[in-house]
Amino acid sequence: MEYHHISGPRRHRKWLWSGLARLCLVLGLAGTISAQHNQPVALRELVSPTDALAAQDLRFDARAAELSLQYLQSKDTAVLEQLVQSPAVTHLLSHARNFDYDVPTDSAQALVRKLLTSPSKSPDPQRVCRQSMAFFAGPLLDEPHWVNDTLRYLPVGFRFHATLFLTYGYDIGVAFAQSASLNCAHPHFDGHGRELLYYAIHELHHVGFYSIKPPRRFSEVKSCRDLLWIAQYHAQLEGMAVLAAWQRRREEHALDDDSDYVALRDEAQMQREEGLYFEELQYLRERGDAPADQEAWAAVGIMSAQRLWYRVGARMAQRIEQVSGRQALIALIPEGPDQFIAAYLQLPPRPALTDHSTDLRPRTSAPLLPPR
Ligand SMILES: [Zn+2]
Questions:
Q1: Distance in Å, CA 306 to ligand 1 centroid
Q2: Ligand 1 centre and the CA of 334: distance in Å?
């Protein structure tokens, strides 16, 4: 018997959570608070069985964020051990090792110790994390059809087999292999819960993209040609993820809440950034099979630090979509980053504009609001 279809899985879960909350309160008063409050939730439990999203194998798991807060408050080593062994931390460690992140990567213990002591630049990271946890367990899952925004920029019939974690202290959000995560304590989310949702669209797009065209390990980069591939791959990867969240941000008047979307609507700035991106690309191309030395890595460093991958990547992806269609843009994922760049360069020149700022303006009639 499937009674949960009658009352709806969310109501059932909320009842369960409130029960567990009471139980945690009782146990907490007894000094042995449990870490089992936020059990993972499957997307298919949140929608009707006839909804297309019910076919997606996607889970939401906030246990790492919760365990982090519990440990910071209790200093209970058993809680710390649970956190160290959590799938979220395994995911973060894999990400750090693949992309040579500046965090301890010798062990999960060392990584967790670092994340708990320097989670973000927020004045009160634990408060921000509590807010994020409430949004993650509430609005993010109450209406989960935002997942379709991600799927719209992946091949038709794409199926997730993935988990989105809420973590504590690592970047703003990352993706690797079959999982993605958002950092509950990041200052970007302070007072802006819906940013978690936009970043979820972004990070989950990476999960889909990786499954079609996996990233390379940074430690395996040998030549400038390898770096050229990375410089192009990450523009395609980040550009499409930025584009995936664009429409919802526009409709919800949230373009001004993220500096990339502000920059993308400034045509003069984008022309400068695009010029810089292609300059660095040309430099790497000319160096061919030369070893990837410090100078060559510096070219990639500029692209990352100045967010050229996100902005110029999104500008290229959006232009390809506008001229050739979304399916053509999606078909470029398996073809690879060389083809993505080539497809962009083959497009007819952008129409000259009397008002340059209108090129990337919203296509709907929704007005832009001043920054919040
Ligand atoms: Zn990204």
A1: 14
A2: 18
Distance between Cα 299 and ligand 1 center (Å): 19
CA of 238 to the centre of ligand 1 (A): 5
**Sequence-distant (≥ 6) Cβ neighbours of residue 8 within 8 angstroms:** none
CA dihedral 88, 93, 96, 97 (to 10 degrees): -150
CA distance 205 to 242: 9
Amino acid identity for residue 358 in this structure: T
Q: How many CA atoms lie within 13 A of 295 on its CB side?
A: 5
- Residue 361's pLDDT band, with cuts at 50, 70 and 90, is very low
Distance 320 CA to ligand 1 centre (A): 19
How far is ligand 1, taken at its centre, from the CA of residue 203, in Å?
Answer: 6
Distance 173 CA to ligand 1 centre (A): 8
pTM equals 0.85
Query: Is the Cβ–Cβ distance between 181 and 165 less than 8 Å?
Result: yes
Per residue in 57-99, pLDDT tens?
Answer: 999 999 999 999 999 999 999 999 999 999 999 999 999 999 9
